[in-house]
Amino acid sequence: MINEETATLEMDKVIEIKPMNPLQIMMRHRENTQKSRIRYALRLSAIERGVAVADVETVALLRQYHDDYLDMERGIDGQVKRAIRALPSNHVLHHMLCVKGVGPSFAAQFWAQVDITRAVGVRALYRYAGHGVKHRWEDGDAECPTCAAAQDEDINERQPKCASCNARWVGRAEKPVAGQTLAYNNKLKTIVYKIGDSMIESSGKRAETDNRLYADLYYEKRADYEDRDWGKSKLHRHLAARRYMQKIWMQHLWVTWRTLEGLSVSDPWPIQKLVEHKHYMPPEDFGWLALDDL
């Protein structure tokens, strides 16, 4: 029989207790509030479209609850702004808010989902945020799709090429697989997608004092894809260009955040490994606070 002391020791091995702070609690409460508000909004929409039927009293009650949750959501947003202002000046959230298109809510949501100490390399952050790439041989393919030659298992992961014909294999974005644990944080992936939307939408409100915008990377990359007629469709080029923009932003966030925490950082893989790729876009060019001034 397992006594209480043994059970406690076993529990300590399994359960990792992570301390929470008020800002994280606010973001979780906001998420739950937003979900409730959206539920009532969808019910009201269904009634307006004639998909559902309800009397006047029921509609009034639904609208009241929707408005109550909306007011609560706005109140939490105000609490989040005040909580961020109270943080030390060298906190990463202050740096995130210097980027056009990243507001207090998006910044706090991203921050609440990530433990930067576990992202030893930027690729770990990419994958956790749903931006990892899985190459074909990882799916079980053992032959080159071009020449059908068998491939060595220890092929270069970052530059997958056929040993026989030198054809480069194309990586695929990770997707949910039935029966397997999700390889990334789906909530974080959604947050990054919304941040990308906000960056592109805010680019139309450019001021003369603005630094280079991340949206510029999106438009440049999309134009390059179109000039080369790359991709399967216009939507494919759009999603690939915004994915490129979001990964550059996460790389800058990774460097800034780990530097502020006193953790090790490294140059991006292309800078380290590719002789022809020596141009690095520093975070300061996109509005981030200079780390040298801290």
What does this structure look like?
The protein is mostly helical and 294 residues long. The chain has 3 domains: 21-86; 91-132 and 177-294, no CATH class; 135-173, no CATH class. The chain is 52% helix and 1% strand. α2 (22-48) runs antiparallel to α3, α5 packs antiparallel against α7 and α7 (186-202) crosses α9 (234-260). The longest helix has 30 residues, at 56-85. The protein is globular and about 70 Å long. Residues 1-17 and 153-158 have low confidence and may be disordered.
Poorly predicted regions:
1-17, 153-158
Largest sheet data: 2 strands, antiparallel
Please give the domain count: 3
Mean pLDDT across the residues is 81
Assembly annotation? single chain
Q: Termini, distance in Å?
A: 57 Å
Name the helix and strand elements from N-terminus to C-terminus, one letter apiece.
HHHHHHEEHHHH
Helices and strands: which structural class?
A: mainly alpha
> What percent of residues adopt helix (DSSP H or I)?
40-55%
Strand order of the largest sheet: 1-2
Strand residue percentage: under 5%
What is the 3D form? globular
β-strand number: 2
Number of helices: 10
Radius of gyration equals: 23 Å
